[in-house]
Amino acid sequence: MSAPPVSARDTLVKRALGGHAAIGLLASALIYIICLSGTLIVIHDRWQRWEQPDVPEMTALSPAAVQTAISAALAREAGKPATTHLYVRLPSAEMPRATVTTDSGGWYVDASGRIAAREAHGWTDFMVAMHEYLHLPMTWGMILVGALGVMLCALVTTGVLAHPRIVRDAFSLRTRHDPQLARADWHNRLGVWTLPFVLAVALTGAFIGLGSVGTTMLAKAYTGGDLLKVYANIFGHEPPSNPARAPIADAAAAMRTLEARVPGAAPTYVIVHEPLTAGQHVQILVAHPRRLIYGESYFFDRTGAFHSKAGLSDGAIGQQVAASSYNLHFGNFAGLPVEIAYMLMGLALCAITATGNSLWLEKRRRRGLGGERLRAGWNMTVWGTATLMVWAIWARALLGTEAPLALGFLSAFAAAVLVAVLYPRVADATALRRVCAGSILLTAIGHLALVRPAIAEPVVIDLIAIGLSVPLLLWSVRARGGRERAGLNADPTPA
Predict the structure, then answer these.
(1) Containing H/E element for 139?
(2) Contact assessment for residue 263 and residue 281, using Cβ atoms and an 8 Å cutoff
(3) 0.70 exceeded by pTM
């Protein structure tokens, strides 16, 4: 009897599934790290308050206070190389604090503009850099992260093509069947439910990460290699430089001019370009709450007279799309509800990534192809990454601002995966889950006990962490006890 003919759809599904597995195996570890760090930094402003809960807070900063903050920051720059940009971040409902930042550091200021404390949220900065460029040299790291965004888009596309009934089965969960089947159902269902989110995040991430490549190509083709001319078409043209010394720009006058021209404007940043030079100018970024754009830029000369605006809110459609990609990627719009939604969908994407590799590894095991070492390495990647991110908080607290968090994390991660591959028994998934849950629980309790936050938001974060870690810890303990009663010494399935 001859074999039944293979249909074109079956061929497409088989090829899509093969491509899906190949891309996932090639990039899964890095995609997982980026997804997990991205999930956490959705609330990076709130993490900054968690790290430094005793900083002065306010609802607004007057133009005079902004000018005072600029002068105070520049006074601290005496004897250092001239700063090229100075940023004053104004308080908002999400972040009721004001900061002033130069090329050499940043400070919190009080309501009058006086320096109150040094910025010391090194763990938050470490996590942001992890997500944006994996602590590689920035340009190359962002290119790699952008390329991983393209791979994530390819994973989504091949995943949909590999499951022709994916929409029909969107609400079919066989959790009481074979664990491998249940894991596959969760992988597929979460993939369907988060499909719009994953596409939006992956496409904007690729756009942001690979933007430098496209800009370089455009500059070589049209502006003789001048990158600033390319960026000016999107973010606005700046006046020519003049390095001659001059008094500090009048940012307070610029803020008053803005209020007169745009009544009710809500500035988020005041930026002085090339301060203390004759060519300095002031840029004020204004929020547009009902728009996806990160803001509109208004430019003023050093006396505070209006010069121009970038057009991010009403300019060419390409400008508006470019200005909207950042908020769409990071979830910086519509406040806390969107942040919560982004974090939940980010966790779902982490689960999709983790179960995808687990499915492939378990399939190899059932076929008698081994892969125990690979399975142990993947267990360590999934749970070790989260644990090391938590331990970085303790490293930052114990070693201070000079703690080499990036080097420590990357070294510890590489060593942990290597040990897991060489000695698979140490990478028992249940034990690793227990360590991760225990680390989160201990960190939250320690933060409450040692730091004693005086504001509510850090306390809420600690309570949520406790509420999530306790069930995870109990689940791990129960799973371990069940396996021991069954006479098993190791977790038979991956993470």
Answers:
(1) helix 138-161
(2) no
(3) yes
